[in-house]
Known about the structure:
single chain, alpha/beta, seven-stranded parallel sheet, 15 helices, 18 strands, about 40% helix
Amino acid sequence: MNASPTTSSASSTHGIPGPPGTESEDALSPVERAVREAARAAKDAQPALARLHRDRKDAVLLAMADALVEHSGQIVDANARDLEAADASGMAAGLRDRLALTPQRVEAIAQQLRDAAALPDPVGEVMQGSVLRNGLELRQVRVPLGVIGMVYEARPNVTVDAAGLALKSGNAVVLRGGSAALHSNTALISVLRSVLAQHELPEDLIVGTDQHGREGVDALLRARGLVDVLIPRGGAGLIQHVVTHSVVPVIETGTGNTHVFLDASADLAQAVDIITNAKTQRIGVCNALETLLVHSDIAERALPLVAAPLAEAGVTLHVDEQARAALAVGGGGTAGADIDVVDATEEDWDTEYLSLDLAIRVVEDLDAALAHIRAHSTGHTESILTRDLVSQQRFLSEVDSAVVMANASTRFSDGGEFGFGAEIGISTQKLHARGPMGLPELTCGKWLVVGQGHVRA
């Protein structure tokens, strides 16, 4: 067990300064003190979950779902205040879409809690076990991580998903959802905490820190010993800030510069539907398509077919020279009055738009597509559209991303779609968890050893 990071004695050892987060309470700013008090409250509350059986946890989740629907009016009203501020600030369309709540979206969020209640409880699951030759009994079982810190922005659904998954997996949660969703998150957390109180559980199993602003984020990053793991969800800037500055262990959920490679052998009618869905079904999400790679052998035939429904949806195409030629576009004009086409720059290949924009590049073959993905992917999700089984297998084997698909929309890269229930994020790193993170990823292993008076010789 780590020493408390708030004790003055931890600040140095033999004259060597301690790590960040080990200052005495007197040295802390009011915001840092408040954030640590919130994290400490969550840490003190978390053991109450160790005594709960699955049926009681599920009952709380179902009650939370009902309470959200019952209070959807006040939640949507609170969200309207956030949307008004978002519109005044010129928030990007993709972020605004993530921020917006309607009664239907509140119901969908509540359904995520019901889905989580229906899932098996991972806590206590035996991961492996054996009896040693000397008679010692070994079991490795799943246990909660402890206190999970969530840092995210303009995503009120994450407030509920994180709280519900944390509760089901036996964890307390500290939420920092950003000033853009302050009123929405405050309303949601208030409803969830009231249900905890009604079920005689500590309300501090769910705590919010949005009121402390940006300084509160950095305070949370220094709350080592109070917060066991941080999970950032948001844009590249937010994630990199957390990864770079946190002294708390981080599970990195990366940005989604997501690719689809349209192979020469693809079924074009099927491909048009998949590409349109991947780009337009919902634009402000990390599994939305951002870059389309097209095999040169079919570019002239395929791109006009692909462009038509994208243009109808209002998508701007950021194209290279070959794609422009394939679309019969010249001199900066458009291929048809309704298709908005601009020249792609090198920056486009690395951009997660989260908007009605799509980068398109014509590549010579599968090798060139793989090289482009290696150079520009964020390791989130990539898909190949092909009828060639050799190409399909090469793509699935050689693309080093958390989720790799064939002949399917990238929008399926999602914990709910995978049957995990609500996800807490999609990890693009390779330690502890990778891909959509459901309940098992919010636990770790603990070894239980049972002897009968054993002593080591």
